[in-house]
Design a protein that fits this description.
Elements lengths: L1 E6 L2 E4 L4 E9 L6 E7 L6 E7 L5 E3 L7 E6 L4 E6 L8 E8 L13 E2 L3 E6 L1
Parallel strand pairs: 2-11
Antiparallel strand pairs: 1-3, 3-8, 4-5, 4-9, 5-6, 7-8, 9-10, 9-11
């Protein structure tokens, strides 16, 4: 069983930065991808960024490339998302998730364990 706890969300003006953290607890040996996703009311959850454990390959949605960086810390027990040059359209609830599957790194349907989410609000 894996438990995920996000933190670091908040309110920021456009152009600002935030860093999200996701603490990972439990049995982590089988995790292949760790990812960040976001969702706004009335819309489907979408993949933002993901990273493969061990190898460290990263994947980004086109909307955040060059602005967001995903990385791991504390021996892969913490997942981070550094968000720079934030835009109002980045406003959403952000979730971290993990999966043992080796495909679909940005596909929410391939992920099984989810955190409770942390809200990010960007004002213009």
């Amino acid at each position: 069983q894996v438990q995920l706890v996000e933190s670091g969300g908040g309110s920021v003006q456009a152009g600002g930065s935030l860093r999200l953290s996701c603490a990972v607890y439990g049995y982590t040996a089988g995790i292949y991808y760790m990812g960040w996703f976001r969702q706004t009311p009335g819309k489907e959850r979408e993949g933002v960024a993901s990273i493969s454990t061990g190898g460290g390959s990263t994947y980004y949605d086109d909307s955040v490339k060059g602005r967001f960086t995903i990385y791991q810390g504390n021996g892969e027990s913490t997942l981070y998302l550094q968000m720079n040059s934030l835009k109002p359209e980045d406003t959403a609830m952000y979730y971290c998730a993990v999966t043992p599957r080796s495909w679909g790194p940005l596909s929410p349907r391939e992920y099984f364990n989810w955190g409770q989410g942390t809200q990010v609000t960007v004002s213009s």
